[in-house]
Amino acid sequence: MISVSEKESNLSIRRILVALDTSKHSQAALQAAADMAELLGAELMGIFVEDINLLHVAQLSFVNEIRYPMAEVRKFDQPQMEQHWQAQAAQARYGLAAVAHSKQIPHSFEIVRGAVASQLLHAAVETDLLALGRLGNSLPGRSRLGSTAQTAVSQARGSVLLMGGEIDLQQPLVVIYDGTSAARRALVVAVKLARLNGRLRVLIWTDDDEIVVQYRQEIFARLHDSDIEISFGRIYPDAQHLLRTYLENNACGLFVIGRTTSQLPSAILDIILEELDCPILLVR
Question: Are 212 and 148 in a shared domain?
Fold first, then answer.
């Protein structure tokens, strides 16, 4: 039987931190975080990080800014950088307030200065979920996961939501289940979020036919009093190509996966992070 601890049963997301800038991925993260905050009754916390590394670059005497399309060259210095930050922060604050007011959810906004990844991790300690843009500005053929997102995946203490394009919670939510405590926590969160459209697909990770039957029965028993329509798929541990095929051929609104004690090998997580187009929620 699936033994759900009291901690897992009471698992909740009460504070959501979203990393804000003016990129489209940040805007997608904001909208997704607001949707989740509304659904879960959570507080939405926005943070804008003034990247200290950019400031160091601006202080170099040989750095100039080339303005396109005029091909105008001008000095790029610290006052201009700080002015640029102020404009971006104001835009981020306004966007957060607008979304929060439209959904009537409590919100707050903070501006900090430092290395982006370390500032986000520090702020995320006091929250349950960190939402941020997933895709970096890497060259073709390089990782599709930005350096800040990579750091969040590997080091954040709480759950992490990685956004690329817009989230579509009208599509089925998908969760990988392998019987571990991490998978049970992921299932708890996925069930809560699936209330929005009433559809959840569980991908069972095992090569044992008897285990598949056992997990299906236990999950059905757990959800017997809910209105969620549940369907099942299966992933064989030694058939990574089948996972790729599934990801390519099936739409999902959100892909939910447990991380801390999961049996999933790192290669599978890499496939999900690098090749899946829909948003990814890593539950810790």
Answer: no
- Note whether residue 5 is domain-resident: no
**If DSSP codes are grouped into helix, strand and coil, which group holds residue 282?**
strand
- Judge if pTM exceeds 0.85: no
Instruction: Give strand pairing partners of 48.
Output: 111
**What confidence tens digit (pLDDT) does each residue in 127-163 have?**
999 999 876 444 444 456 788 888 998 899 889 999 8
> What's the rounded Cα separation, in Å, for the pair 47 and 111?
6
Among the candidates 128, 163, 198, a domain finishes at 163
pLDDT in tens, 58-87: 555 544 444 444 444 455 567 778 888 899
**Cα(210)–Cα(206) distance, integer angstroms:** 10
Which domain does 209 fall in, by range?
Answer: 168-283
Residue 238 token pair: 């030694």
What does the chain come to in residues? 284
